[in-house]
């Protein structure tokens, strides 16, 4: 029986983590009190009872709603620092962190507040938690292409803090090609590119994210298994997939963890990583996720080590600062 060190605590990178999805009920109520925000839940117990999701959209409704407590730079710093402390305790050595600027600017919170607050925590992360970090700015795909372009424009003064752009939120009906222009602009600014694709959407969205948006990694990519030709391509081109098994169960993409195709995906030669997505909502941080796939899917120590190795292979760990100045 592998010890916790070989399951939960294995040194690893986390590549699919929405910082807003690390907002634990306790911190949500603390920030609500600090900012005079009334939440539609009596207490943390009642809030936790609302975490029964039917699909991605039912989760997103609650996720965006709870962000109402995030107001100041201090709030964003506290949020990120709490995540980094938890991640460190589960073996995370490098974290590439998504944030959703439009979910905050739509509430009147300037992008500067978000980026500067998060950056205060990220700057101290190496020294406090032993975790190196990157920041990935996501566009909300259920908002317009114009809104994404305006978000990239608003982020211009902060690009020295941002490594890559991503694409998240409600997938079905919002194919990647809608964001061709903003991804081209991001690439021209020296930003790297990733996108959620194939979480609930069809395999064609994965192909489109690669061919039209030029992404280097696919976030989720679960539905590639419906298209053997696409699997061959992902293997051949060594495109990393940032899988999130606990998220897939909670958002009902798979019925139970025992049914998750991770073992078949690894056996097919896909460059798989496992990640926590929105750990405050989906029942565990990334170490818990490694432990869960060990228990439910029978992945052995060697397979868990392969996942951890893949997480560093797939990370943006080369010198993106130099790329930015070029
Ligand atoms: N935003 C936060 N979590 C997400 C997920 N799992 N899919 C799409 N958008 C998200
Ligand atoms: Zn995600």
TrEMBL record:
A single MF term (Gene Ontology): adenine deaminase activity
Entries under Gene3D superfamilies matching the protein: Metal-dependent hydrolases
Top-level enzyme category: hydrolase
UniProt keyword annotation of Transmembrane helix present: no
Any Pfam family hit: A_deaminase
Function description: Catalyzes the hydrolytic deamination of adenine to hypoxanthine. Plays an important role in the purine salvage pathway and in nitrogen catabolism.
Protein name: Adenine deaminase
Protein species of origin: Streptomyces triticagri
């Amino acid at each position: 029986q592998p010890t916790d060190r070989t399951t939960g605590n294995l040194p690893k990178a986390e590549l699919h983590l929405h910082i807003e999805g690390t907002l634990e009920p306790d911190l949500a109520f603390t920030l609500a009190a600090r900012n005079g925000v009334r939440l539609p839940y009596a207490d943390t117990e009642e809030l936790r009872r609302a975490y029964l999701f039917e699909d991605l959209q039912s989760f997103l409704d609650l996720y965006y709603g709870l962000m109402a407590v995030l107001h100041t730079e201090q709030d964003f710093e506290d949020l990120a620092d709490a995540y980094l402390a938890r991640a460190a305790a589960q073996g995370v050595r490098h974290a590439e962190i998504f944030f959703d600027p439009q979910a905050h600017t739509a509430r009147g919170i300037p992008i500067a507040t978000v980026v500067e607050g998060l950056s205060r925590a990220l700057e101290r992360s190496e020294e406090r938690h032993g975790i190196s970090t990157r920041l990935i700015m996501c566009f909300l795909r259920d908002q317009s292409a114009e809104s994404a372009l305006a978000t990239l424009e608003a982020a211009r003064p902060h690009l020295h803090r941002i490594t890559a752009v991503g694409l998240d939120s409600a997938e079905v009906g919002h194919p990647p090609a809608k964001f061709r222009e903003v991804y081209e602009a991001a690439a021209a600014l020296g930003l790297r590119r990733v996108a959620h694709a194939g979480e609930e959407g069809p395999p064609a969205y994965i192909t489109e994210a690669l061919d039209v948006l030029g992404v280097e990694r696919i976030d989720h990519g679960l539905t590639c298994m419906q298209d053997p030709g696409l699997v061959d391509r992902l293997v051949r081109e060594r495109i990393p997939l940032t899988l999130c098994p606990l998220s897939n169960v909670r958002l009902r993409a798979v019925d139970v963890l025992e049914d998750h195709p991770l073992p078949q995906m690894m056996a097919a030669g896909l460059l798989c990583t496992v990640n926590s997505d929105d750990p405050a909502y989906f029942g565990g941080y990334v170490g818990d996720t490694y432990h869960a796939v060990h228990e439910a899917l029978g992945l052995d120590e060697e397979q868990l080590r392969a996942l951890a190795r893949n997480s560093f292979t797939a990370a943006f760990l080369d010198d993106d600062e130099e790329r930015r100045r070029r």
